[in-house]
Design brief:
The protein is globular. The chain is 26% helix and 32% strand. By secondary structure, the chain is α/β, with parallel strands linked by helices. The chain has helices spanning 12-21, 32-37, 49-58, 62-71, 79-82, 183-196; strands at residues 2-5, 26-29, 40-43, 74-77, 85-88, 94-95, 100-106, 115-120, 122-123, 137-142, 144-147, 153-158, 162-169, 172-175. The strands form three sheets. The protein has an eight-stranded mixed β-sheet with strand order 2-1-3-4-14-13-12-9. The chain is built from six helices and 14 strands. Pathway: Amino-acid biosynthesis; L-histidine biosynthesis; L-histidine from 5-phospho-alpha-D-ribose 1-diphosphate: step 5/9. Pfam families: GATase.
């Protein structure tokens, strides 16, 4: 069973549908017992980093999500990916989940923000499981980007600067784009995450 975290700030219906297309049982919940029973945890998100942190804290989910991420494959999508990092600067400073070292700040680019639309992926050479997605286009909607060490970056997209598009720390993954809105390629990327985390080891130190 795949559990999608419900904290009031996600495009949950489309994410749920995408996983159901792959044949998985999917539940949307903020109940810790239900989350603990899942094989994979998905953290979606649309909105601001600061507001998302407030919602997570209001529902007393932060410590539970941090614990579950050490035990189970975990995927953050769009804002959900940004929440994986230590700190964000959107609408004020807020502490994230601290699952991947780094911060989230506005994209420093001459291009118009937000970054909306289709952009191609550039896969880093040390992540061969994702090689099939080189130059494939996925759908982005964001103005903020992760700032992290290169070793955590699986793929980037160019928007006047290199923006991390897929990040990873052990069995914790993040996708800055919306795989659920990226057609067949997006579904295949979700499938790659599920297949990769079926055998991967735990979080790196």
């Amino acid at each position: 069973m795949i559990a999608i975290v419900d904290y009031g700030m996600g495009n949950i219906a489309s994410v749920k549908t995408a996983f159901e297309k792959l044949g998985y049982e999917v539940v949307v919940t903020d109940d810790i017992d239900t989350l603990s029973a899942a094989t994979h945890i998905i953290l979606p998100g649309v909105g601001s980093f600061h507001a998302a942190v407030e919602e997570i804290n209001t529902r007393h989910l932060k410590e539970d999500l941090q614990k579950l991420a050490k035990e189970k494959p975990f995927l953050g999508i769009c804002l959900g990916m940004q929440l994986l990092f230590d700190k964000g600067f959107e609408n004020g400073i807020a502490n994230g989940l601290g699952l991947i070292p780094g911060e989230v700040n506005v994209i420093k680019t001459e291009y118009i923000l937000p970054h909306i639309g289709w952009n191609e992926l550039n896969i880093e050479h040390n992540h061969t499981v994702f090689d099939m997605f080189q130059n494939k286009h996925v759908y982005f909607v964001h103005s903020f980007q992760a700032l992290t060490e290169k070793k955590y970056v699986v793929a980037t997209a160019n928007y006047g600067t290199e923006v991390p598009a897929i990040v990873r720390n052990g069995h914790i993954f993040g996708m800055q784009f919306h795989p659920e809105k990226s057609g067949e390629i997006g579904v295949k990327l979700l499938q790659a995450f599920l297949q990769q985390t079926s055998t991967t080891e735990g979080v790196e130190s």
